[in-house]
Amino acid sequence: MKGLVYGGPGAREWAEIPDPVIADPRDAIIRVDAVTICGTDLHILGGDVPEVAAGRVLGHEAVGTVVETGGGVAALAEGDRVLASCISACGVCRYCRQGAYGQCLGGGGWILGHLVDGVQSEYARIPYADLSTYKLPDQVTDEAAVLLADILPTSYEVGVLNGQVRPGDTVAIVGAGPIGLAAVLTARLYSPAHIVVIDKAETRLQAAKLFGADTTVTAGTQDPLAAVQALTGGLGADVVIEAVGVPDTFELCTTLVRPGGRVANIGVHGKPATLHLEDLWIRNVTITTGLVDTFSTPRLLDMLVAGQLDAGPMITHRFGFGDFMHAYDVFADAAHTGALKVVVSR
């Protein structure tokens, strides 16, 4: 079979690789039917995640069909159509028992496309399959479901819930890529008074308006701080969500937040950012970080089935498996291609 193989910083190849095999009784093998490329994959290719070894198959967001299960898998059978979560969970360690699956001590957490081969391939091994997959109802399409593998639960848990978005809040979101747009979509569930989105790309700001932002700010030509202060009587935002992962955007977030407010960092950072405690120490600001746990995935899936959540417009480009390398090119050059989320499917 073929998979997208990481060859070290800047190097990737759609190459022939061995078929996956059951390595643990709790494993399942899926035929990958639809898969996406994540901004984190670009961070890996940029050398920002040095734990990823050359030769690793990338990818952690997929929908597939079960073709084989290990003897310890109880809830899945051949032919089941499943969402493969970006987080694997052993289910028995201290963190898993608390629902903090991203911090799993039993060999789980974020491992797909990171510490073990991922899902950007024709077939994939899913560790801890009972707890790391979700059966999909017939009415949910592959494209709709695959967005629940990572970006929607990540934005919801690490951005909206960590940021404690409440009715009437002013929420500023820095970055209008897929994670930022998913933060707009899920923040709306809590009826904030204002959602302000800041980005450099006009196409992404237009997408933010489509998903529910009422104010957009073009970074570099408009002043984000002035825009937020104008909406809040000079106070600043109640919640600021960082959805890029570079030092400048994190530092911008800490200037936009009001005294007593909350900064929720989602972005994957590969370089140090300055924490200006000389300004923040007196302002009662809470800063949170986090890796998604995916405890919210069942609830988000229920909302998807009920028609309360629609991230479908986020998918801008579609490719077949034979075009995987081109899919990466398009996704990585979003400033020119207008790509938000790309889906690669059979």
From TrEMBL:
Residue stretches making up the Enoyl reductase (ER) domain: 7-344
Stored SUPFAM superfamilies: GroES-like, NAD(P)-binding Rossmann-fold domains
InterPro entries tied to this protein: ADH-like_C (IPR013149), ADH-like_N (IPR013154), ADH_Zn_CS (IPR002328), ER (IPR020843), GroES-like_sf (IPR011032), NAD(P)-bd_dom_sf (IPR036291)
Gene3D superfamilies given in the database record: Medium-chain alcohol dehydrogenases, catalytic domain (3.90.180.10), NAD(P)-binding Rossmann-like Domain (3.40.50.720)
Keywords: Metal-binding, Oxidoreductase, Zinc
Pfam families: ADH_N, ADH_zinc_N
Top-level taxon in the UniProt lineage: Bacteria
Cofactor(s) in the UniProt record: Zn(2+)
Zinc as UniProt keyword: yes
Family statement: Belongs to the zinc-containing alcohol dehydrogenase family.
PANTHER family the UniProt entry points to: NADP-DEPENDENT ISOPROPANOL DEHYDROGENASE (PTHR42813:SF4), ZINC-TYPE ALCOHOL DEHYDROGENASE-LIKE (PTHR42813)
Protein name: Zinc-dependent alcohol dehydrogenase family protein
Source species of the chain: Paractinoplanes ovalisporus
